[in-house]
Structures are given as structure tokens and as C-alpha cells.
Amino acid sequence: MSLFTTSKTRMPAPDQALPGRDRVMPVPDRHLVLGRPLVPPFPAATERVLIGMGCFWGAERLLWSLPGIWVTAVGYAGGFTANPTYEEVCSGRTGHNEVVQVVFDPADLAFEALLKVFWDSHDPTQGMRQGNDVGTQYRSGLYVTSAAQRLAAEESRSAFGRKLAAAGFGAITTEIGEDPIFYYAEDYHQQYLARNPNGYCGLAGTGVKCG
């Protein structure tokens, strides 16, 4: 049987998902690198978007390094289970994606520039996986927080898709959704590659520098 036909690559139905819990995951008070609060309220001038591009460790390090980023945090979104644990998400029974919550200042980082980094830094054609990481939690995703963001995301997906098609690549499978509930991941996942500089970075296979 192919590795990619397991149940972990199929989204569960809502009534099949794990029930979760009411308890919110505790997270550190401050970003380990940027020194800013991980939880709202965020400055009024900032915008927020959730980005899924495979394992969230490497994605977060790439994103927090961009100019104009106010803060990042990793977590789970796009599924059904309330306040899931990492183990539950990895089971494939929550429907959640591993995502990075990105809070940015559009005066210093245009959303279109952030989208370019997104498309250039992973393979958005792989469905329920990213490289060797297989499962629904590794799908490509953009979860927007405004109508303007959604329009820009959809337009950029179409434009990048045309370029991929011209180069002989497959269709984009990126999921674009609107502001689902963001559940913070466990504290040891937050800024994981700042704590563990030689740790696993799933972006390495895309040509993005992981260190």
C-alpha cells in the first residue's frame, strides 16, 4: 500500500473528529526572538493571517525573520477539535493544519510581499503532505482575516498557478479559508528552532535556507 493512501491523508468528517477539551493551551508570555506578546491584543496598525506550509517549526523561523513582522506563533487551525494536542493533530483525527499565526505591519510588509514568500518557500501542489511529512496537518493553507486579504490571496494563487502550469508542474492544492479559530500549540513548539537551532526544518527540501 502506498504511504500516501493512509487515513492520515483524508480529512475526517466533523462527527469523526476527536472531541478536544475546554482548557486552553498555556503558552509563553513573550516571543523568544522578537520579545513581544504571543497573544492578543495586538497593535491596531497590524494585520493577522494564518499560514500553513508544512511543519510549522521551519515555517515560523522563516516568517519571524521577515522585516515588518510584529510577532509569530505556531498552532493549529482549519479543523474541528477544540484545543487539540500535538499528538491528536498528528493522529489525523482533528482536521487541523499546522499553521503559523503571523502578525505584521502592512506599512513595513505588504501582504502581497508576504504572499510571495509563501508561494516561493514551499511546494503548494502536494495535497496532504509537504515533502516527507505526510498528513492532513501538513497541507498548504492560507487563512485570511479580511476581504482584501482573501482577494489578494486568490489572485496570487491564480497567478502562481499559471506560472507553475507553464513550467509543467501540477495544480495548486492550497486551501484558502477565512479566519478559523487559532489554537496555540504547546509551549515547546513556540519558536522551536530558536531553542533548537539544529532541529528539523521541513523547508530544507524546497531550497529555503533553514539555518
Protein model, in words:
By secondary structure, this protein is of the alpha+beta class. It has a single domain, classed as Peptide methionine sulphoxide reductase MsrA (Peptide Methionine Sulfoxide Reductase, Chain A). The chain is built from five helices and eight strands; from the N terminus they run E-H-E-H-E-H-E-E-E-H-E-E-H. It has helices at residues 56-64, 86-90, 111-120, 147-166, 192-195, and strands spanning 47-53, 69-77, 97-104, 129-130, 133-134, 140-144, 175-178, 183-184. The termini are far apart. Has an important function as a repair enzyme for proteins that have been inactivated by oxidation. Catalyzes the reversible oxidation-reduction of methionine sulfoxide in proteins to methionine.
